[in-house]
Design goal:
Elements: H1 8-15, E1 26-30, H2 31-37, H3 39-47, E2 53-58, H4 93-98, E3 104-108, H5 114-126, E4 131-136, H6 151-160, E5 167-169, H7 171-175, E6 181-183, H8 193-198, H9 201-209, H10 211-236
Helix pairs in contact: 2-3, 9-10
Length: 245
């Protein structure tokens, strides 16, 4: 570390130190970019140890180009190029990023927990290394039946039913002998899952057009969500105390 000399220039700079703050680097993008067409670049940035933050606004569809399906689109959702409902599950970008071990990761939903969202932003900024925040972002392409003015309510239901779990993964906690994964929600109420799906045209359309096919894909959608929840629970329950390593 460089030491300040006793010259007048150094004294002047030191007198202004309250204005010299850390430069904050943030990259903003949608799910089509982060999960799909720009994934290679996102992965490259996250794999490094550069102090850069990425915020992904996940609408689960290519919103800006007309509503095409992306790798973020869940099973059973109707979108362009998936008119009969997407047949395979959504990529778990958070879990992929966790495999590196040095990335701060949070999955957030303002409608479900604003405090958790703000805490994730502060922790990501404080983390000395790359961070990834994935934010649930209701979109007009979802066809929210309550109306977009009720998007916060829809976000809350998505988390309560297990469709969109919220959590934080902080590598700094492992250095303290603590589990880096913190689940910021209670056990989901899976009985509300169908209510959530039917509250959006992207799912309800399929049920109206092809009930039998919709029932099959929706069951898979819920199965995928429950499986993901169990995986997160197992990781969150692991003992990271030093004597267990």
């Amino acid at each position: 570390m460089l030491e300040a000399c006793d010259c007048e220039a150094s004294k002047e700079i030191l007198s202004l130190k309250q204005y010299l703050v850390k430069k904050s680097q943030w990259i903003f993008g949608g799910d089509g970019w982060a999960y799909d067409i720009g994934y290679g670049g996102v992965d490259h940035v996250l794999a490094t140890n550069e102090d850069v933050n990425i915020l992904v606004m996940d609408t689960e569809v290519y919103s800006n180009t007309g509503g095409q399906a992306s790798k973020s689109t869940p099973t059973g959702a109707v979108a362009k190029f998936a008119a009969a409902g997407k047949s395979y599950k959504k990529k778990d970008l958070a879990a992929i990023a966790m495999s590196y071990g040095h990335i701060y990761i949070a999955q957030v939903s303002m409608g479900a927990n604003q405090q958790q969202y703000l805490k994730a932003l502060a922790e990501a900024e404080a983390h000395d290394g790359p961070s990834l925040i994935i934010a649930y972002s209701p979109c007009i392409n979802h066809g929210v039946r309550k109306g977009m003015s009720k998007s916060q309510t829809e976000m809350k239901l998505a988390t309560e039913c297990g469709y969109w779990p919220i959590f934080r993964y902080n590598p700094a906690l492992e250095a303290e002998g603590k589990n880096p994964l913190i689940l910021d929600m209670k056990e989901p109420n899976w009985d509300k899952y169908q209510e959530y799906l039917m509250g959006e045209v992207r799912y309800a359309t399929l049920k109206k057009a092809n009930p039998a096919h919709a029932e099959e894909l929706f069951a898979k959608n819920k199965f995928d969500a429950q499986r993901r929840w169990r995986q997160y629970n197992r990781l969150a329950a692991m003992d990271f105390s030093p004597e267990k390593k």
